[in-house]
Amino acid sequence: MKRALLSVWNKDGIIDLARTLHQAGIELLSSGGTAKVLTASNIPIIEVSEYTGFPEMMDGRVKTLHPKIHGGILGRRGTDDAIMKEHNIGPIDLVVVNLYPFEEMTKQSLPLDELIEFIDIGGPAMIRAAAKNFQDVLVVIDPADYPALMNAVSSKKSFSKEERLAYARKVFARMAAYDGAISNYLYGLEEELPSGYSVQFRNGRMLRYGENPHQIAAVYGESGIGGSLPLQGKAMSYNNYLDVDAAVGLLREFDECAAVIVKHNNPCGVATGEIIRDVYIAARDVDPVSAYGGIVAVNREVTPDLAKEIASTFIEVLVAPSFSEEAREILKTKENLRLLHLTDPAGHAAIRTIDGGALVQVTPVQREEWRVVTDRDPTADEEAAMMLAMKVCKHVKSNAIIFADKNRALGIGAGQMSRVDSAKIAISKAQFPLKGSVVASDAFLPFSDTLEVAAEAGATALIQPGGSIRDNEVIAEANRRKMAMVFTGIRYFRH
């Protein structure tokens, strides 16, 4: 390795890397801000403009787009030597480049004419060229790879073809994500979703299998649930990730102390309160049979008291913002129990594959417009129960019917073709009396039959989106039974 080209936006680690390369006798080419940083650190470099005999121009838009640069990168050793010598093109053996941060800058609400200057041109051209010629040129785009590069250079270790190819793969993955981000943004200026949608998830990790043992699966992601790794216990499974995502999605609905238990992608226990141990027990007792082997998510630190309760039964995963040291010691006795930190939401579009394509969905911020449609207003306790029930309802597979009081779900009916059947299941699953409870529906009631079943079970109030052609019939039945009913105006189907 005789010559390296360094041109980076992210300057982390570049001084130490450049110094290591220089000490190894490697000639350094650089341009723009990178050249200034290295020169200020007394690291000898050759400016690209000096090397090419062509100045930087157009406010830095044109710096490295020159045959001496790209010929030096693309030239095949042993094949293009003669033509390179004829045109005085020296080989470039190492390219260290990272790109203008277009994705980050889109979050700063810049005018398009300013943002567009963060679309990198020279950087992508250089790293694509180097990746194409990976057998002769090593390309490094991630500062996390600098230590390995420095160790190799210091020890005079050469890189194998397989190692060079691995670095090249990173380039094309980064370019796919980078170009996709630009495309999505520019389309999004006029459309909520583009006609061509690009997405890339990195940090892929193979899983033992998918939903079932005969299926092959991996998880991808660098943030949110997709990037989560357990603090203890077995590796996460495909189904674990699905259930954790469901549990955390519902948990984020609550600011107050809350616990959520999920089994097979549906909540089977939800409760709120003051003390996290008591809240967890209340959630577990909603459906203790289903809670066994489930996913538990809480939004308060795991205390020793809670840890003892968790350790007393079989739980697959426990998600929490933090764990006390004593709690960690208690939970270590459950060797297979996975512990995860509660992550911040990653905030991306929802994507589901279908045969031959994908469905992409974004959820804008919405506000329910509660409207009392019955003669009787809900009481304060009924209104609090409605709020909890509707939060749960949003995260249950349709058709969803939820019975609740102001502190917890009492009965959860999910995933039925008939809304009445969901109501009957919720009633049959209830471990506590439903007298005085409220009931929530994720979609409008097309007939009064669901309300009648709920009322006969003891519900005194109902909340639903409204919007059926038979709303008046349902309202009349509610009035006849002296029930309070609220319309929200928003449907929450989850298929």
Explain this structure.
The chain folds into three domains: 3-188, Rossmann fold (3-Layer(aba) Sandwich), CATH 3.40.50; 230-341, 3-Layer(aba) Sandwich (Cytidine Deaminase, domain 2), CATH 3.40.140.20; 371-487, AICAR transformylase, duplication domain (Cytidine Deaminase, domain 2, 3-Layer(aba) Sandwich). Helix content is 37%, strand content 17%. The protein is built from 19 helices and 20 strands. The chain has helices spanning 14-23, 32-40, 48-52, 67-74, 81-86, 102-105, 112-115, 122-132, 146-154, 161-188, 238-251, 276-286, 288-291, 304-311, 325-331, 380-393, 419-429, 449-457, 471-480; strands spanning 3-8, 27-30, 46-47, 94-98, 138-140, 205-206, 218-219, 257-263, 266-273, 295-298, 317-320, 338-341, 350-354, 357-361, 371-372, 401-404, 409-413, 438-441, 461-464, 484-487. The protein has a six-stranded mixed beta sheet, sandwiched between helices. It has a five-stranded parallel beta sheet with strand order 3-2-1-4-5, sandwiched between helices. A hairpin with a 2-residue loop joins β8 and β9.
